[in-house]
Request: fold
Amino acid sequence: MRLMRVATQAAATDPRTGRIDMDMITTGRSSAERENEESLNTTLKELLAERRGNRMAVSDVRRQLNEITNANAQQEEVVEALRRMEADGLIQFNERAQTIFVRAG
Reply:
């Protein structure tokens, strides 16, 4: 029984905060990671809404995003958010050229 309790505690501990987070068990991600992702998505949508009809380099998107949030969003986080936005039809994402086109609609 003690082994199960220790294993559950280890699996549910958020490595960033050191606190037990049951979201780690149910979703595989901590609630802090999920909140950061949602915040990134919201800020990114607001940023790109102002640039409809324009093509941008992913590096420029990341730089502007970091300026707005005063944070340091990692390249992979930004790319994942852009992939989700492409799946939603908000942008065209050319991963090879590392550019996006913000759709006008």
